[in-house]
């Protein structure tokens, strides 16, 4: 049960994103399960943060530099 919930928190990236670890972290009474849920939540959120910046850079370049190659966006995606 503890191991299953902890494992599902990490594997939830395939079926529930960051919602499942968040729910387990808030609802679980077990300290070890909460710790794993928190780690899984952080590891699921790490890729989302740069994605937001890439989208903002892409929109900015498309609006302000309509006739040019979006270099900042390409660099952001590569990095």
TrEMBL record:
The chain crosses the membrane at residues 7-28, 40-60. Keywords: Membrane, Transmembrane, Transmembrane helix. Coiled coil: none annotated. It is a multi-pass membrane protein. It is found in: Membrane. Its main location: membrane. The keyword Membrane applies. Pfam families: MamF_MmsF (PF09685). This is DUF4870 domain-containing protein. The lineage of its organism: Bacteria, Bacillati, Bacillota, Bacilli, Bacillales.
